[in-house]
Amino acid sequence: MKKNIVVLDSKGMNPGDLDWDEIQKLGNLKVYENTKYESIVKRAENAEIVVINKCKFDRKILSLLPKLEFICESATGFDNIDIVFAKKQGVLVSNVKDYSTKSVVQHVFSLIFGLTNKVEYNNNEVKKGRWVNSDYFTFWDYPITEISGKTLGLYGFGKIASEVAKIAHAFGMKIIANRKNPNKGYPDYVKHVTIQKLFRLSDIISLHAPLTKENTEIINSSTLSEMKENVLIINTARGKMINENDLKSALDNNTIKAAGLDVLSTEPPLENNPLLNCENCLITPHQAWTSVESRKRLMSGVKENIESFLNGKALNRVN
């Protein structure tokens, strides 16, 4: 008998431009674009397999789903799942690794160049007529800064950060990094430093570590005060690594130069998020991973994980 598969929040992975045919073949498939916390149990109560992205599967939810056998996280991060309790309940959990690496790396540099080259800003100024009305052949309000020769500090050094390092090296940047286990090594063009040195020496800091209790709000008033005045902070990892009020204060007071963020502490953000109206903070709506190619790899990874589970294995198991 085919198992029941419920996708609880499909909109990010497949807003309608991809199909579900391959996953449909694996079981009785039900797809929901988005599911609020209070609706999870009702929608998943008969499912042996659930596919989720941001839906919170805590102890309460897991306790109310006795038929559940397998959670397929349609993402790399799985901090929305109580992994320990899921294991106690006999529920296997798998994620999808590396599907978004190329897309996120591209977005990291999009944010960097958005801050250094001001492409969007200058395009808007041209469309407003400022170039037409200029008495000189060029104009600019903000100087363009070359990244060649600058120091890039990578907090975390997994697959995405290592690919960022390759491109940064090609641009002629100096690269320093901090990872939890430095014994895993680095390419010869990357130097390991302490977190304190990384914050102090970097011209650009890019965050690439998983969110933990230890690094929650690691960017705060104290660490910001140690950074260079011209530093750029890039975050495509997790919004809660940054104390947003402290970052706002540092930006407003020119303690640091600018920030480029694809993630915020609450998503979607609250209207009173202090960074939303911050002039020197470039924000994109958690879209670094969303290229068509990336989402196709994600769909394929979900299919492979479910298929593997049905065959008595657990591909990319995390518990």
Any descriptors?
single chain; 319 residues; alpha/beta; Rossmann fold; seven-stranded parallel beta sheet; five-stranded parallel beta sheet; globular
Tell me what you see in this structure.
The protein folds into two domains: 4-99 and 292-310, Rossmann fold (3-Layer(aba) Sandwich); 101-283, Rossmann fold (3-Layer(aba) Sandwich). It has helices spanning 21-24, 40-44, 59-63, 83-88, 101-116, 119-127, 159-170, 195-201, 221-225, 244-252, 292-310; strands spanning 4-7, 28-31, 49-52, 70-73, 92-94, 151-155, 174-178, 190-192, 204-207, 232-235, 258-261, 281-283. The strands form two sheets. It has a seven-stranded parallel beta sheet with strand order 8-7-6-9-10-11-12, sandwiched between helices. A five-stranded parallel beta sheet has the order 2-1-3-4-5. It contains eleven helices and twelve strands. α5 crosses α7. The longest helix has 19 residues, at 292-310. It has 319 residues and is an alpha/beta fold. It is globular, with a radius of gyration of 22 Å.
Layout of strands and helices, then pairs:
Blueprint lengths: L3 E4 L13 H4 L3 E4 L8 H5 L4 E4 L6 H5 L6 E4 L9 H6 L3 E3 L6 H16 L2 H9 L23 E5 L3 H12 L3 E5 L11 E3 L2 H7 L2 E4 L13 H5 L6 E4 L8 H9 L5 E4 L19 E3 L8 H19 L9
Parallel strand pairs: 1-2, 1-3, 3-4, 4-5, 6-7, 6-9, 7-8, 9-10, 10-11, 11-12
Helix pairs in contact: 5-7
**% residues in beta strands:** 5-15%
| CATH fold title of the largest domain | Rossmann fold
Level of helix content? 25-40%
Global Rg:
22 Å
* Whole-number count of domains: 2
Which shape, going by the Cα principal axes? Answer: globular
Spatial strand arrangement across the major sheet:
8-7-6-9-10-11-12
What would you say the CATH architecture of the largest domain is? 3-Layer(aba) Sandwich
By CATH, the superfamily of the largest domain comes out as NAD(P)-binding Rossmann-like Domain
| Average pLDDT reading | 96
Our measurement of the CA-to-CA distance between the termini, rounded to an integer number of angstroms, reads: 26 Å
